[in-house]
Amino acid sequence: MLNHICPKCQNGHVACFSCWSKLSNKCHICSRDAKFARNIALEKIVESIKSSCSYAKWGCCKFINYAQRDAHEEACLFAPSMCPISNCGYRGFTGRWSGHFLTSHSSDVMRFNYSQPFEVNIEVSVPFLVFLGEDDRLFLLLNNNLTPFGHAFSVVCLRSGNLNWMFSYQIEATSRKKPENRLQLKASVTNTRQWTGIYPSEAFLLVPFDFCHSSNIVLNISIERHAVV
Q: Cα 172 vs. chain centroid, distance in angstroms?
């Protein structure tokens, strides 16, 4: 149900708020004063009109009415995400990332399989690494330089809508000076439609600078996929 108030005059003539203000709250048909109240009949008409999802060109085939549009598009699986690579400008969603990265950024992505640990060697100056899952989901390993403490590492997933999977990850770092000293984090993957440079604050692995190998940090990472019951 629409919740906004619709201006109409005492004879039932309707106009939008901006038009009423231009008319000094006088009806454009009969010059009667405006009455601010819900127009149930007009609401029903608007609610009965269905249109295609704004993300139809990315594959969504659903038609939704006005009242449901915001909720649907917030959860739509076809809502595109921006490619995280600087100055790229590509917009895509799960199912198309592999084609885009293989074509445009083949040297900037690392493929992985869920539940299988893998090693990464990240330069301390690099803000993130891109991982592509076996199901074409895109993950970012974020590297936040927290001088003078160290580097804060976390994982986010570029995804849209309400999906049937949740993700968790584990990161482990080993000291270059004392290999017996290790740091480890297990956490849930943060979901975002696009990364805007803001780092997650709920969970991250803080790796001190003395764990670094010259200008690089070696990490062991595992990403898990869990079905939503």
A: 26
Can you read off the two tokens belonging to residue 16? 């939008």
- Residue 154 falls in which region: left (phi positive, over 0), alpha (psi -120 to 50) or beta: beta
| Helix ranges, the chain (H) | 17-22, 40-48, 66-75, 97-104
List phi, psi (to 5°) of 145.
-80, 110
pLDDT tens string 182-201: 999 999 998 887 888 888 88
Report in angstroms the alpha-carbon separations of 42 from 27, 48, 206.
17, 10, 57
Say how far apart CA 82 and CA 91 lie, in whole Å. Answer: 5
Read off the pTM: 0.71
Task: For residue 226, give the 3-state DSSP assignment.
Answer: strand
Helix 40-48 vs helix 66-75: crossing angle, to nearest 10: 50
* Separation CA 194–CA 192 (nearest Å): 5
Tens-place pLDDT, residues 53-99: 888 887 788 888 877 888 887 778 777 888 888 889 888 776 678 88
What does R_g of the chain's alpha carbons equal in angstroms? 26
Q: d(Cα 14, Cα 32) in Å, to the nearest integer? A: 11
Q: Residue 22 contacts by C-beta under 8 Å, 6 or more apart in sequence?
A: none
Find the length of the chain.
229
Q: By three-state DSSP, how is residue 87 classified?
A: coil
